[in-house]
Amino acid sequence: MADIKTFYLPDLGEGLPDATIVEWLVKVGGTVRLDEPMVSMETAKAVVEVPSPFSGKLVKVHGDSGDVIATGAALAEFELDPKMPQRAEAESTGHHHGPPKAAAAAPAKGAGAEAPDHQGVVASDEGGEIASGGKAPRADEGTVVGAMQSSDRVHAEQATSVGGVKAVPAVRALAKKLGVDLARVSPSGAGGVVTLQDVKSAAAAGTARIGAAPAAAAAPTRAASGASPAPVATAAAQRTTLSAAGKPMRTTPPTVAATGQPEQLKGVRRNMARVMAAAHAAVVPTTLSDDADIHAWLPGNDITGRLVRAIVRAAKAVPALNAWFDGDNLARTLHPHVDIGIAVDTDDGLFVPALRNADMLDAAGVRAAVNRLRAQVEDRSIPPSELSGYTISLSNFGVFAGRYATPVVVPPCVAIVAAGKGRHQMTPVMGGFESHRVIPLSLTFDHRAATGGEAARFLKAMLDDLALAH
User: Fold this and answer.
1) Predicted local distance difference test score (pLDDT) of residue 77
2) Which residue among 43, 201, 243, 432 is the one 20 to 30 A from 12 at the CA level?
3) Which fold has domain 282-466?
4) CATH classification of 1-96+110-137+148-157 is 2.40.50.100, yes or no?
């Protein structure tokens, strides 16, 4: 009898609860050797290649490209080949290849059972019912504010369609890095999904470069008889406020539900949703706002650099906000150094890389570090270790729009500073009024860890530093 081994998805980094299949590197029925790359998976922070834990034939997989697999759930099954090298049972691999201990005898509450052959469909980008696919009803996990989970182990999802192109976020990130226009790539994945290999092949062939002129459409030719060509089909009818009779359209009754297809969150955006929900449930936030008058600034001041410097000086003056707070044990840690989490907005979701040792950097050093972090975020090469461990956060949303905000404090941090869009305002001066440029600032802090007076003094220290000429 063939020796069949099941491989369970290990934790791919820092306790992440699940990962999304990007692409199987070995097909079902194919042979794979020990430690050879088997499948690429996207987590909330990176795309990683998972090595094979066995040598032999891959006989079954428990998910396709775009499927979200819970950590500890079955990922693949192998028929071992005794003639090929195998890892000893007692040899540590750094991976967990067995089911959770609590599930050895009976599934733990909330653990759920393996969803066979995509029967555990929660939602699909293609629409359809949202059900358990004929399985027994799910076990109730209870309700925890900001942390509801399903007990199904495999959540079948499809690659998102943007501009008519189906691809998972990791493929889109690779295409952006390689300068490939996904609309010009021929998809080879199931259902017309563009895979990583499709992007790599297009990049190597140079057939789908971004910005390349589109192929000219063939001009319609007249038939030999001289007859006019058949009319070209018109594009889909445009939406209009008028009916076919030219009369105003009736508005939709409020009882009619809006249409649309559910789209499961994946990767970075999925993790962001979890983090925001957890922060909302755990923190007692309070926000202070004021305007920083930068009328005295001399040419050449870097706004981000000045904001970083102001946070550093405020943190030195009021250490209570450059801190971590442990809500369970009601303990706080004041940090002598200042590591600032810089919020970076991307199409895939929010990243917050850490600007380390900001209190040791000059203006040029801050700019160089920020540019490096942004570049690493954009091409998804930033190490996971650089996305945590900061002592206070900065969000410069004003580069887009908005004046004041209530930014979210993510534990264990105590505070976050948000800078709005700069503007000019009339300011009273001796003898009249002047037009001064100001930057709106919003400071959100966890009121369990800091007092209103400490927060106000922190904000005042920032305003005073930003008011300096350089």
Assistant:
1) 92
2) 201
3) Chloramphenicol Acetyltransferase (3.30.559)
4) yes
